[in-house]
Amino acid sequence: MLAQAARILLADDHALVRSGLRMILDAEPDLQVVAEAADGHEAIKALDGTPVDLAILDIAMPRMTGLQAAREINRTHPTVRILILSMYDNEQYFFESLKAGASGYVLKSVADRDLLEACRATLRGEPFLYAGAVTALIRDYLNRARQGDDLPDNILTPREEEVLKLVAEGYSSREIANTLGISAKTVDRHRTNTLAKLGLRDRLALTRYAIRAGLIEP
């Protein structure tokens, strides 16, 4: 008797990308996409109604990024394993993915080659690291050993990060308030706190920071 296929949630804001990845995954007898989402909020909502073993999250999605969704999934659905998909071979994004609870980081440019291996490794409880990520890990370990430093924790709260992302995407305080279900005054307070914590002065500086932090695409 065949074992049940692993149940997968696939989240990417590009329908064509989701379709292509789904074809790759569903062609395998041990893997099955059971839910799709176009952003992080949809992904979290889908998990509430559909049993899932593995969530594959695009790192850069509107409204809520894959990193933000990964943190929330890790907190609310700790048995769900997480893979991050990214266009960028970027050390900061890679380390942020690990800190957010992901077990692996897959580059979209080689997803047709790496995705299946990454899924199976993650489902076995093993990390999946592409070659560049291994190099980054070793370099980071050596640097920290030399300097005695740890990676800095995120100084923003999850809510401040949500507000920052939406500010950087050009939403007004009223629109952000409606999206997050909070008052415009609370949005303004979060924005003020974020500017103070980061030592920044205006929306443009916040947008630049959001791009560097992987919250939005450049």
Automatic annotation (TrEMBL):
Keywords: DNA-binding, Phosphoprotein, Transcription, Transcription regulation. GO terms for biological process: phosphorelay signal transduction system; regulation of DNA-templated transcription. InterPro entries: CheY-like_superfamily (IPR011006), NreC/VraR/RcsB-like_REC (IPR058245), Sig_transdc_resp-reg_C-effctor (IPR016032), Sig_transdc_resp-reg_receiver (IPR001789), Tscrpt_reg_LuxR_C (IPR000792), WalR-like (IPR039420). Residues 7-123 form the Response regulatory domain. The modification 4-aspartylphosphate is found at D58. One of its GO terms (molecular function) is DNA binding. The keyword Ligase does not apply. Residues 149-214 form the HTH luxR-type domain. PROSITE patterns: HTH_LUXR_1, HTH_LUXR_2, RESPONSE_REGULATORY. Pfam families: GerE, Response_reg. This is DNA-binding response regulator. The keyword rRNA-binding does not apply.
